[in-house]
Amino acid sequence: MNADLLYLIVGVVALLVVGAVVATVVVRRRRALPPAPPAEELERPAVGTATAPSKERGERAPGTTAPPETLPDTQVEPAPAPLDVPEAPESRLTRLRRRLAGQDNALSRGLLALLARDRIDEDTWEEFEDTLITSDLGVGPTTELVEALRTRLKVEGVADPGAARRVLREELLRLVDPTMDRSLATEPGTDANGAHVPAVVLVVGVNGTGKTTTVGKLARVLVAEDKDVLLGAADTFRAAAADQLETWGSRVGVPVVRGAEQADPASVAFDAVRAGQQGEADVVLVDTAGRLHSKTGLMDELGKVKRVIERTAPVGEVLLVLDATTGQNGLTQARIFREVVDVTGIVLTKLDGSAKGGIVVQVQRELGVPVKLIGLGEGVDDLAPFDAEQFVDAVLSEA
Fold first, then answer.
1. Where does GTP bind (predicted)?
2. Are 219 and 233 in contact (CB under 8 A)?
3. What is the model's pTM?
């Protein structure tokens, strides 16, 4: 065997040996790999779902929707409750007029009886006069109205019920006096330095008249007129009063300034007006404690509240809340409050439950100040500006 053939055989054998070694290594490597995943795990996820990341990263299983990202320590605040939309003053007046006209009150019955008679004699006039007095019209206004009616019906020869009603309306309207200024002083101003000064309305009255509720309802009236309002809870003797005000304020987005229980009412009132000045509020409504008019010390304290407020801003309006059902007792209260805080207007509440509309005339005569607001119900918007003509028309609507 020659040398070339020998080299060829050796080379072929070497190649075979190397190939066998390589094949063995490849086979061993293939056996070391994990088995291939099933075909379904290799499919792409559907649109709108998340991928299937590992659980070690806190990720979800395939086929679920990804939650929104949030910071670990973030507190998610609930959405604020929607604010109430107070009823417009115009629609309040219309609705309250209908409600007043629907009351079976003594004044309406007396007027109806007068016009229903075929012949008006002395007994009729006496009966009518008694009815007016019992409807809280008062002795003076009653005598004045009866004399005016008797004279006009006789002189003008009025026999037709329709004509008699017109005369009656004119005379009753004259007693209610539509010429009195019933507007509320709720326009802000500026001081000598040009700084903002809110209008301040002080609300006073005895316990049980609905004073705090009236403050809350009045806030709604002003918000409906696009006023920026702030409430001052100066009734610090009754914690529930401040809580009640905060409830009213939260419904229409009105802030409330309150102090600790038993705190100095004058201090709380001062802080409220100062906050209204700094926040450039249009109106600050200050609720005061329901003081008994027989308590001289408490009445003096009410005078102090007014004096302290006026260190910051003038008190443009002092509203006395009276319960229309109290009659003569309400007039006694009114006189004492007028002496202490110079009352500028009356709020008559519970007029729907009283049916004694004559109190409107009498209280105006006694105090020389107008009825500016009336309440006819327990609804949140059952408070409206008093309108003399609408009041008289409502009383006569059944006649």
1. 205-212, 287-291, 349-352
2. no
3. 0.75
Provide the angle, in degrees to the nearest 10, between the axes of the packed helices 211-224 and 239-252. Answer: 20
Could you list the residues known to form a binding site for GTP, using ranges: 205-212, 287-291, 349-352
CA distances from 87 to 213, 232, 384 (A): 16, 23, 10
Q: What CATH class does 189-343 carry?
A: alpha beta
Annotated binding site: 205-212, 287-291, 349-352
Q: What are phi and psi of 27, to 5 degrees?
A: -60, -45
Q: What is the pLDDT along the chain (399 residues), one digit of tens a residue?
A: 555 555 555 555 555 544 544 444 333 333 343 443 443 333 333 333 333 333 343 343 444 444 444 434 434 444 456 788 888 766 776 776 776 665 555 666 666 666 677 677 788 888 888 888 877 788 899 999 999 988 998 888 877 777 878 888 899 999 999 999 999 999 999 998 999 999 999 999 987 888 999 999 999 999 999 999 999 999 988 888 999 999 999 999 999 999 888 899 999 999 999 999 999 999 999 999 886 656 667 778 888 999 999 999 999 999 999 988 877 777 887 888 888 888 999 999 887 755 567 888 988 988 899 999 998 778 888 898 898 998 888 877 754
